[in-house]
Structure formats: structure tokens, C-alpha cells
What we know:
Structural class: alpha+beta
Distance between the termini: 49 Å
Radius of gyration: 19 Å
Number of helices: 4
Amino acid sequence: MKHLFMIVCTLLLLAACSGAAPATQVNADDVVQQFQDAGLELTNIQKPERGPESPLPNSYGENITFNYAELGDAGGQIFTCDTRDNCDAVYAYFETLEGLADSYLYRSEAGTVIAQLNSSLTPEQAERFAAVIEGL
């Protein structure tokens, strides 16, 4: 019985040590702050309510919309998710719209932050946003 206990304990320890460390969670407010720290002037920052009739997958945790000062009323939105899998559905949704609505779509390395940006941005402006998102 003593050996069985030791084997079970060893297996539990090995299982606990073998898992990858969870990614640091980034919330939408953190992303906005990162944009601002990078010198991107955001205005009209809002957290819209989820539309029950919206075709957008409801797998995200937070959504923030914003305007980019250099574009006036145009800007983009940020989605954060608890897991990469949750963001996969949101990312795939925007990828399918790519042909209809020409916009910039970026995702963090961990896959838990997505930025969808207005096509009115110049490639140089979009790259500044991309550098922040891809660095998360």
C-alpha cells in the first residue's frame, strides 16, 4: 500500500510539472494602455454590450472599440479571450469577412488578444498597432 501511495504521489507531481505555464492574461484596458504608451492616440474608447443577435462568436472575454485620433471617427476594436481556443472563433469570424470589409487583423503571439483595425489606416499606422499586439 505504501508503494502505491508513493507511485500516485510521483505521478501527480510529474503531471503538475509537465504542464506549460499559463500565459499571462492581458485585459482590454491593458491593451489600450499599451497602445497609448506607444504614442497611439485613442479617443472615444468604449466597451460595447454584446448583441444577442450578432453573428460574432461570443467566446471572447472583453471587447473595446476606439477611434484613432488621426482618423477622426475611424479606429478599431480589441478582443481579449481567456484562451487561444476562445479567440480562434473570433479570429476566424473576422478572417471570413476579410473579402467584404477590408481591414487589418492582428493577433498576439499567445493568441488571446485580437485587434481589428479600420482599413483607413495607412500601412505605417497599422504597423504601429501591430507591433503592440504582436508583442503581447
